[in-house]
Amino acid sequence: MSKQWLTKLMIVPPVLALLFFLYMTFVNSSYEHPGRIIYYSKCASCHGDHGEGTQNLVPPIYNTSTLKNSFETLPSLIRNGLKDSVFVEGKWYNQPMYPIQLSSVEMANLLNFMNDSFLVEKKVDFVINSAWVETQISKMSK
Predict the structure, then answer these.
(1) Are 100 and 124 in contact (CB under 8 A)?
(2) pTM of this structure
(3) Which end of the chain is less packed: N or C, by CB atoms within 10 Å?
(4) 80-115: string of b/e by CB count within 10 Å (b at 16+)?
């Protein structure tokens, strides 16, 4: 083997590594909404992966009139939980919803994900931020 051919062969692994890195970074990467991560870690076990609910125990949230009509109450509901029965899409659900401790930023991310993913027509046409979350919570605590 000539030395020149061996030198050319040595450049192949770094080039392949670079190509693999570029592919994984730009072509194969999928943006994961931070609110989606929170939903799947805190909410999906009860409300379902797609917001479909859990049979007769936990209400659905995907595109329900309840979600549309009470979207502004969600920050308080998520933070404080719900002990009472709730009527959703013609059905009563009695399973309590336990409080979920999230920062205002995490809650804003969760609500943005829900607004984008679970409502066919978005409830809000702006990006929810932590200030909006805190305002809604303070309104509900009065």
Answers:
(1) no
(2) 0.75
(3) C
(4) eeeeeebebeeeebeeebeebebebebbbbbbbbbb
Please report, in tens digits, the pLDDT of each residue of the chain (142 residues total): 566 766 666 777 777 777 776 666 666 556 678 999 999 999 999 999 999 999 889 999 999 998 899 899 999 999 999 999 999 999 999 999 999 999 999 999 999 999 999 988 888 888 999 999 999 999 988 6
Tokens of 75: 């920050």
User: How far is 84 from 88, CA to CA, in rounded Å?
Assistant: 13
Q: Copy the structure tokens of residue 23.
A: 């592919």
**CATH code for 33-140?**
1.10.760.10
Tell me the Cα Rg of the chain: 23
Indicate the burial class of 72 (C-beta count within 10 angstroms; 0-12, 13-18, 19 or more): middle
Judge whether 24 and 16 are in contact, CB under 8 Å: no
